[in-house]
Amino acid sequence: MPGKVRVERVRLEKILRYAGLLLCFALGFLAGLGGTVMAAPQQGGGANYAVLYDGLDDYVDLNGSMLGAPASVTVEAWVRIDALNKIHYLVTNADNDFNDGFSLIVDQSGRVNFVAASGLYVKGIALSATLLQVGQWHHVAGVYDAQNGQVKVYVDGLEESVVPYADGVRYLSGRDLKLGSQNKAFERAGRFLRGALDEVRIWNVARDADEILANMKVQLDGGPPGLIGYWQKNEGNGTSTADLIASNNGQLRMGPQWIEASWLVVGQQQLAIDIKPGGSHNVVMLSRRTIPVALLSSADLDALSEINRLSLTFGRTGGEPSLEVSRRGRPKCNDRDVNNDGLRDLVCLFNIEATGFQHGDTKGILNATTMSDVQLTGSDDVVVRGRVLTKRDDNKYGDKFSDLTDADDNNPRKYDRRGRH
Ligand SMILES: [Ca+2]
Ligand SMILES: [Ca+2]
Ligand SMILES: [Ca+2]
Ligand SMILES: [Ca+2]
Question: Does the predicted model carry a pTM greater than 0.70?
Fold first, then answer.
């Protein structure tokens, strides 16, 4: 049975690829920190741990002066809050009144706040629109961009708020850097994190939206330029957590616990995609019904035979169930070589409303699973325009999807015909 042979060969290829990656890690380790940056997913090995804070007095203590005094700063972390109606401090080197330093916080309603301050009443505060959900892991990030004079906050890799603020960040000597607590915790009780915090990164540069989105779901290996503090919290036991950049190791105070964290998709690998194959502008018109995305085959991956089409999700975060299917439940996909490399690619149609795209989004992300259960993710640039179809517009057009596809989708009728076989 050719199918079976194919699967076995694929497994062997996967094993060889993992072995190659391990060798790559080993070489990176020998080269020492500060060497090549590899934003590679964790492959097997140790579990991904996080630190769980009790919301009463737990925190992690770090040396604030080891950060230096960067003009721009980016603070990132994965967080799971376990309660609402309280303020959770995630990362701060500020005093308790936000007159200096930076603070990444979740407020009573679950909004993420990032504060940059340089004096009494001199501060920029960016608030997320998204409310974090209790019990769910979210990636959060705050940026102070000195060059452009802006404070920004991100949730799950998407920019949520940009606030003009050009007065910089004031760093006071002797300040601690705290995870899970405000700085002088004894002075004002009740602002300890109740929940879990992981993968804390502090950069002395303003990371841009693409960089944040591209690196949030992986653990970084080595020391990318600008990373000045990095706590993966993967020790899993003991009372300290290592800083992988500058040995600014954290001390766990008042009894935080170690838990396994579920935000990291182990084994997730990159996949090349082309949104609206054939064109490079990738304009997503919200008034249209569908958009085609090509999953590009490579020497390692035959997208036609190895991708589980029903697993495809696509949109602003990658998790949106937007795949168009026929009345019989078959995915609307076809195959052609969209990039003329001699390998046939898989092109599928997605429902634009279900992608969750919003005006101003700049990335489209596709997640897929192979027949052998390997998780793949890919992204491509988009320009999102217009407004979402109203119910009335929708009824007007009925089910004639192909009438609404973009002009540069080549011949949209192909999708219907071939998708149904
Ligand atoms: Ca971790
Ligand atoms: Ca405690
Ligand atoms: Ca394209
Ligand atoms: Ca191709």
Answer: no
